[in-house]
Amino acid sequence: MSIGFIGVGLMGGPLARNLIRAGKDVLVFDLSTDAVKRTLDAGTSGKAAGSLGDLGGCDMVFTSLPMPQHVEGVMLGEGGLLNKMNSGAVHVELSTIDPQTSVKLRDAAQEKGIGFIQCTLGKTPAHAEKAEEPLFIGGDKALYEKLSDIWPIIGSPAYYMGGVEASCAVKLISNMVGMANLAVLAEGMRAGEKAGIEKKVLVELLQDTGARSFQMDVRGPWIAAGDFNNRFGLDLALKDVRLGCEMARSWGLDLKTMEAALELYKQASSAGHGKEDCNAVYKVIGS
What would the pLDDT profile of 58-117 be if each residue is shown by its tens digit? Predict the structure, then answer.
C-alpha cells in the first residue's frame, strides 16, 4: 500500500514517522523542508513529494493541517487532490476541523468513489511520537475495519465513533474543556500570586487537591517556570475553541464557560501571544 502524507508538523509528523518506522511506503508533502527532513529521518521507506499532485496515485492519503480551509484547499475544487486520486483510494483526515467541513469532504470523496475517514487525535505530539495517541475515528464502519492494521501503527487506542460528525465533535469538546480548564488554572495561579504563594509551590499543593487536572500537571509547571515555548500554539487553541463554540451554537447551546474562555484566548492572541504555547493565556489574566 502506498501512503501519501500531507502536513508533517507537530501532530502529523509523529504519525508519518510511525508509518515510516513500520516500513510503510510514505510519500511526504509539507511546505516546510525542515519538517519533511525530520520526518524522513525516521527511516528509509519515506520519500519527499515534489508537489501535491505526486500524491494522486497513492492508495491512501492522510491530511494533517492547521485549519479547515487548508484541508478544503488541498482536497477540493478543480485543482484539489480528490480529482487526481484513483477510485477506491482512501482519504484519512486527521485535522481538528468542524463537523460541517468533514461532511463536505466525505461527500466530495464519495462522489469520486474515494473512501473517507475522519480520525481526530486525543493527546499531545509526545504521545503521538510513541503511537500512544487516542484515535477518534468516524466514517464507514467497513472501511474502518478494513484499515484495522493501520490504526495501531499511528496511535492507540482506536475508538470507532460512528459518523464523521461525532469524530470531529469529540475532539472539539475535548479541546474546549481542556482550554477552559487551562484558563481557569491561569486565573487560579494569578489569585495565588496575590495571596503571596510562589507559583511552583501552588502547583504542587493543588496537585494534591480536587483542582488537579491534565493541564495542571503538564502546563502548570511551565507557567510557574515562565516557560511559554510553543508545544500547542495559542492561535491553534483559539481556533479549536472557536470551532467548538460555533458547533455548540449551531445546536442551540449556550456554553457560557466555553464562550468566556474563547474571549480570553482572543484577548491573548490580540496581545501578540498567538505563536506562544496556549499557556500564554496566563499573560492576559488580570491585565
Answer: 999 999 999 999 999 999 998 999 999 999 999 999 999 999 999 999 999 999 999 999
How confident is the model over 140-189, as pLDDT tens digits? 999 999 999 999 999 999 999 999 999 999 999 999 999 999 999 999 99
Asked whether the beta carbons of 258 and 180 are under 8 A apart, the reply is yes
What are the structural domains, with CATH classification, of the chain? 2-162 (3.40.50.720), 169-284 (1.10.1040.10)
Q: Note whether 217 and 126 are within 8 A (CB).
A: no
In this predicted model, what pLDDT tens digit does every residue of 3-47 receive, in sequence order?
999 999 999 999 999 999 999 999 999 999 999 999 999 999 999
Half-sphere exposure (Cβ direction) of 158: Cα atoms closer than 13 Å: 20
* Surface-to-core class of residue 195, CB atoms within 10 Å of its CB (0-12 exposed, 13-18 middle, 19+ buried): exposed
- CB neighbour burial string for 129-142, b if at least 16 within 10 angstroms, e if fewer: eebebbbbbbbbee
Task: Pull the grid cell for residue 125.
Answer: 505530539
This prediction has a pTM of 0.91
Residues 247 and 107: their CA atoms lie apart, in Å, by 19
- Tell me the one-letter amino acid at 21: R
The pLDDT confidence band at residue 124, using thresholds 50, 70 and 90, is confident
| 123, three cell numbers | 493527546
- Supply φ then ψ for residue 95, to 5 degrees: -70, 160
DSSP H stretches of helix in 207-286 = 214-224, 234-250, 256-268
Rama region for 196: left / alpha / beta (φ>0; ψ in -120 to 50; rest) = left
